[in-house]
Design goal:
With 340 residues, the protein is α/β, with parallel strands linked by helices. Helices cover 42% and strands 19% of the residues. It has two domains: 138 residues, 3-Layer(aba) Sandwich (Rossmann fold); 180 residues, Alpha-Beta Plaits. Helix 2 packs parallel to helix 3 and helix 8 packs across helix 9. It is elongated and about 75 Å long.
Length: 340
């Protein structure tokens, strides 16, 4: 069941899980206009809906055939990607032991059937408001104060998640490491306030070139940036790197002390996990060239392996004169050995 209540507040998403159509209709009527509402009639379907729609709150029935409410909640709390998702149990069970068990499983609240509409409305609004404030705080914690894009902590968390997803589903994953060429000379020549402004503008150009859902542009440290590109082939990652190069060139930030150009430029290292061997990269922008060689992954690789590939690629770009792209392509094959 994938019906949606179209009368909603866009920033809030609510999943109602109950095997009783009558209960679904009642809750939907009570919560009209509070959020965008999705429905599931089983625990198994609820987990699929969570993966598909990323709700902000779940109203979860306890007694359902198959995967019951308690087991569904346990599965959600065991997954790092959904562990913080608030759950309100909605059930006909009214005893203290049931309520205590629900809270012990990590539920945020507990509503008894038959439901009291004002109580349901108040508790759902409270949980959605708390979730919104929590998300805002998390965004601030994960944001680089100078540039306004993701910080190193956000990058590390996202790379860990995307690496695990790539391994689990055998999906493509690419990573860009980006360094502003001769940035120390820029700071020395123009001063640190100008250097800060340069960092902000370059960060904006990087973020502007990576707007797909799932892409993450982050300040990695100092004048170095990183971009995580899920579901992205080596060739597509190279194309995005070219777009970033073009965006930085378009800023036309004068850099009179740079040996490679009269304006600010960047070097880019591209690393990729591929289900095929390394493909040749063809340079297609004026100042971006690519140097490709094939790499494969160690049997027990971690996200650190992908970082190492990106670092090696970035080093190759800088060693070859900067203001260019270099690529390293890995193969997601547990029986092959990584060659440094």
């Amino acid at each position: 069941m994938d019906a949606v209540n179209e009368n909603f507040v866009p920033q809030s998403r609510l999943l109602i899980v109950d095997d009783d159509p009558h209960s679904l209709r009642i809750l939907n009527a009570i919560l009209q206009g509070v959020a965008k509402i999705y429905f599931a009639t089983s625990g198994e379907e609820a987990l699929r809906q969570v993966a598909k729609h990323a709700p902000d709150l779940i109203l979860l029935d306890v007694d359902m055939p198959g995967l019951g409410g308690h087991a569904t909640c346990t599965a959600l709390k065991a997954d790092p990607e959904t562990a913080e998702l608030p759950v309100i149990f909605v059930t006909a069970r009214a005893d203290t032991a049931s309520e205590t068990q629900a809270l012990a499983l990590g539920a945020a609240d507990f509503i008894h059937k038959p439901v009291n509409p004002p109580v349901v409305l108040a508790r759902v609004k409270t949980q959605l408001a708390l979730k919104q404030k929590s998300d805002q705080l998390r965004r601030l914690i994960m944001m680089d104060a100078l540039t306004g894009i993701a910080n190193r902590r956000a990058f590390d968390d996202s790379l860990s998640r995307e690496w695990k997803r790539a391994l689990r589903h055998n999906e493509l994953l690419s990573l860009l490491m980006i360094d502003i060429d001769y940035f120390k000379r820029y700071n020395d020549a123009y001063g640190h306030p100008a250097g800060d402004a340069c960092l902000r503008q370059v960060a904006g150009a990087i973020a502007g070139a990576t707007k797909r859902a799932g892409d993450l542009a982050a300040r990695y440290g100092g004048e170095e940036f990183a971009v995580i590109l899920p579901h992205t082939s080596a060739q597509d990652a190279h194309t995005i790197a070219e777009r970033i190069c073009a965006g930085v060139r378009a800023l036309a930030l004068a850099h009179g002390d740079s040996p490679v150009a009269p304006h600010v430029t960047i070097s880019v290292g591209v690393a990729n996990l591929s289900d095929t061997g390394g493909a040749e990269c063809t340079p297609r922008c004026v100042q971006c060239s690519a140097q490709c060689s094939n790499f494969v992954l160690i049997k027990h690789a971690t996200q650190g392996t992908l970082l190492a590939l990106a670092d090696q690629a970035l080093y190759a770009a800088k060693r070859s004169g900067r203001a260019q792209i270099a690529s390293r392509t890995g193969r997601l094959d547990p029986d092959r050995i990584f060659h440094a």
